[in-house]
Amino acid sequence: MSRPVKQIHLAAHFPGVNNTTVWSDPRSGSHIDFASFVHFARTAERAKFDFLFLAEGLRLREQRGRIHDLDVVGRPDTFTVLAALAAVTDRLGLAGTINSTFNEPFEVARQFASLDHLSDGRAAWNVVTSWDAFTGENFRRGGFLPEGERYGRAEQFLRTAWELFDSWQADDIIADKESGVFLADPAAGSFEHTDAHFDIRGRFTVPRSPQGRPVIFQAGDSDAGREFAASSADAIFSRHSEFDAGRAFHADVKRRLGRYGRGPEDLLVLPAASFVLGDTDADAQERAAEVRRQQVSGATAILLLEQVWNRDLQKHDPEGPLPEVDPLPGEHTIAQGRASVRMYEDRLATARRWRELAEQRTLTTRELIIEVTGRQTFVGSPVAVAEAINRFVQADAADGFILVPHITPSGLDEFADTVVPLLQERGVFRAEYEGTTLRDHLGLRTGAGAGRQL
């Protein structure tokens, strides 16, 4: 018996600091001006995407003690931007990354409950942790939390926030029609929570929001991160956008759900994905190669190389071979505030692999960095890209994708105009929104049962 055709979930990632944006393209605009956020969000909503995803950076990254050349000098506050976008969109979900290491549960729960009310039920929270003391220097706590304990705090943080969301029930406010006064149950909003990280008690100030709880996202890929997602998240923001790796990750995370009394439908796997479109597949391939060259200039190649070598390589020629000297092991001192340095835990082994690849293919340093720092996930004509996305989802390599364009803010326009109609024709993507909340769009439960209590 054949299974039903899966519906594809699509979302849009507004780029933060990165080397993926092609700044030299004349279409590239501000990552700070509100007009850019509005254009991006309205395009996503016009295409009937599930949500817009906004990353968060709590400190500007540095390299050799200077602000990283590819950083946007200014990171607008997540809640401020999402609240403003709630006023210029009607159905699009609004997902924000908020850190559980340097915030407090009452503050974050109040902000998300408020956003859920302002947006009529479209709020989502990407729960992340911070691992480095460098970021912590911006906060009173500094880098007090050992890396191994960060998920413990995150779990308790989320548990506490859920208790606050659930402290109000739907019928706790009763309207007296004659007097026009709203009366609350005497116990409404009351909470008390004590654990190793938090000791709070009082009354939550925001009545129950339209979704009950915001949609919960998680983005960790470690075993602890996957377990956290399986126990607590509604969706996981995955980096596994290659087909075989995606299927393996999808199966692994879904397999973990049973031990928490959850089913496969309770957690969506949504990898980040980039794309390049062309009139033909060959045209798209040519465009993709040029985009990669623009994304990794010679200066960028050196910056990315330093993140593995942990050495000052300003004088190294990016158009020459890799450095003869090996990376420096130990604490990373060249690049600070970059999560990507954690991907290269064994820098010596990474350097060996890169040397072998460069020798086999006669690659310069810049060409090597272009090769190893990522490729576009979907490259081709609109028909080819639509077919590839549908293949991933129907084969359980993903439940959908969070698209990251290389141009801001107009980078979604072509996808919305050409690929989305093809997916709609195939019956695998909505033609209109059927519900009003983000949980409706994602097919998730609403109310007290939304999200599993830890």
From TrEMBL:
The keyword Oxidoreductase applies. Residues 24-395 form the Luciferase-like domain. Keywords: Flavoprotein, FMN, Monooxygenase, Oxidoreductase. The keyword Flavoprotein applies. It comes from the Bacteria. One of its GO terms (molecular function) is oxidoreductase activity, acting on paired donors, with incorporation or reduction of molecular oxygen. It holds the Pfam family Bac_luciferase. FMN binds at residues 97, 151, 222. Coiled coil: none annotated. Gene3D superfamilies: Luciferase-like domain. InterPro entries: Diverse_substr_monoxygenases (IPR051260), Luciferase-like_dom (IPR011251), Luciferase-like_sf (IPR036661), NTA_MOA (IPR016215). Belongs to the NtaA/SnaA/DszA monooxygenase family. This is F420-dependent methylene-tetrahydromethanopterin reductase.
